[in-house]
Predict the 3D structure of the following.
Amino acid sequence: MNKPRILVVEDESGIADTIVYALVSDGFEPVPCGSAHEAITHFQVSPPALAILDVGLPDMNGFELFRRLQDVPGGRDVPMLFLTARSSEIDRVVGLELGADDYIGKPFSPRELVARVRTILRRSQRMASGARENQVLAPLNQVPENTEKKVNSIQHPFLLDEQRRLIRYHGQALELSRYEYGLLSTLIQRPGRVFTRDELLERVWDDPGDSFDRTVDAHIKTLRAKLRAVRDTEDPIRTLRGVGYALREA
């Protein structure tokens, strides 16, 4: 059985060696990289099961590296964890807004890091194998031989392809992170239904205890920006202050 490959992007050799040793000891196959460009090269050859990205790299900000890796074919399916000496809330929020799966600050416990890696991989595997499990809402009409389904065709210009985890808006395919996809697919399957932040955390994040309300708000913000890039005169997501979010019915 192949060991899960973990891309470790860390320029401090002492920290990188500690991470590599912890991962090897726990049955993973780490691929250490000392720079962002080296990481991109490895990623392009073969996307790993998970990537650990240091924010303070010598040749590129870790947040920018995250964006570059997501643009690599298959990159959006790879969970990523930020590792940084900076522990301010704004850095954590930026990472979560980008769609990162977790965030851990230095100094850290190697055992905790490995535990988080395992948690993220389990979560990612559940999301991949259980894409249909998110159909916990009233299911759409089944369309044989066609996985792309119109959602309330009279009211909303959304097309949902659950097998490919793809959503089209006004005919244009949206480039969504896994959490943006989960939020939007949840909302569009029940137009008008108000979902609280806690409900969205439960349905989309699987491990809601590891996230917080602002995580939902941050992803809704980036999701709205992508929808407005397609049609800037429309805002299909309605905010109910202090409650949650809903897709407009008309």
Summary: Helices lie at 13-25, 36-45, 62-71, 89-98, 110-129, 178-188, 197-205, 213-230. Residues 110-129 form the longest helix (20 residues). The first strand starts at residue 5 and ends at 9. Residues 49 and 105 are 21 Å apart (CA to CA).
